[in-house]
Amino acid sequence: MSRDDEFIAYMRAFEASMTHLGSCAACQNDQSCDAGQPIHADFMARQDAWSERVRAERGQP
Length: 61
Ligand SMILES: [Zn+2]
Prior knowledge:
The chain is mainly α. The protein has one domain. It has helices at residues 3-22, 25-28, 36-59. α1 packs antiparallel against α3. The radius of gyration is 14 Å and the shape is elongated. The two termini are 23 Å apart. Zinc ion binds next to α2.
């Protein structure tokens, strides 16, 4: 996946997670529902991957 694609996927996952969160009381209370759990898990995974990429890039001279 290219850098741009990875960033776009991260932003889409963020939006999906926020959109779900906005309409789900259970997820707002940190009790991810069955529908929300994979959406939030995907967002966290993409966020981790993105932070890892940025960290690796900063480590380059
Ligand atoms: Zn939910």
